[in-house]
Amino acid sequence: MKIQYKFLENLLIDSTNLTRNFNFFQRYIFIKFNQFSKIVQRINQIGMIKSSFVKSDKNKAKDDLNKAFFGHAEFDAIFSNSIKKGTTILIEEDYPTSMHVSFNRYFVGCGFHLEQNCFVYDVFPKRWYDMIPVKSTSEEKREQEKLAISKQKEENKIAWRYNHMTIKLKEEALSKDIPRLDLSRNVADKEKVKNLLISKDINQFGNLKELLDDICNSLQNSFSSENDTKLKKICITNLFGNFSKIKYTDQELIKFLYAIKTITRASHMLLVLTIPPTISEKLKSLFYMNFDLVIKLEPLFENTEFLDFNGMLHILKYPQINNYLNFKLDTLTWGLKASSKKRIEIEKLYLQPPDQDNINADNVYKEENKTQTIICSNKPSGKTDLDF
């Protein structure tokens, strides 16, 4: 009985304490609610309280530390300005024209004006110190914009069957971070050129291993510190061309291509290598397989369809991860215009309409044929059709 009484006494005490705690908690909630309601009323009286949080702008482009530029605004716009560091680019040259040299000048010149270290391996290395194009001035940019607008109006008239087709790339797609270059003039400050550009004779290397070792040493010496994140650009021109004296075997070439791709990835640099179109298809397939982006330049000489263009740019291979593209390609073939010495324009291909004189001549020819057929079809008098 004592044990049961003691248990009931403790239970009564606990229930009493619980009731007190509940009443205290209820009063506390009521007081806090009243305080909160007063705060809300005060906020409504004041109007609005400025927040310390900044609203994120979704349209504002974030700086991508892995982004890299080839150097031609329209070329980069084709790939939505999404070329990354560590990308290897292969260009099949055009012969007998030399538009590939202009593309190399864009590549090296952009790196120079962005104060990036550039390394060029060429058969004629000394010429590169006099081939860095200058930036276009603001007045020249305005003239180019006016010229582009006038050309656009003419092309809209010329491209009569592509009235609903955009020929030029939109101005919004062109990155403003890429310097616009004037190929007709070169940089006069030779000391600055030699500080940022190193050009070497590719024939001084007996084999591909020596070339690879020199590339590694040049990259290692170019880093100012461990935290140096500036982009490095390497341009190897006309490898295995008519003037190239480098000896190699297929096995050495495979090792070289794999090693140069690994170095490009590890060093976060950008590599451009050009090959002549005269090499064998077997060698071309090896190059195509080991490069991320493959471009072929084709001259247009006796082509009667695309009279407004001087060449064509074919995209044979483009970088992708697990069959996923981070950019959208409108077409794989583009037209090249080199009518001016200042720049190379990249546009969509379009057919030129027939000349008005030719149209009139065709109409006259059709009318003559029509009258001849009418005369020949008249039946001679007194004769009937044969019935078989």
Automatic annotation (TrEMBL):
Alphabetical keyword list: Cytoplasm, Nucleus, tRNA processing
An example Gene Ontology biological process: tRNA wobble uridine modification
Gene3D superfamilies from the UniProt entry: P-loop containing nucleotide triphosphate hydrolases
One GO cellular component, as annotated: cytoplasm
Compartment(s) where it occurs, according to its Swiss-Prot or TrEMBL record: Cytoplasm; Nucleus
Pathway(s): tRNA modification; 5-methoxycarbonylmethyl-2-thiouridine-tRNA biosynthesis
Main location: cytoplasm
Protein family (similarity comment): Belongs to the ELP4 family.
Record protein name field: Elongator complex protein 4
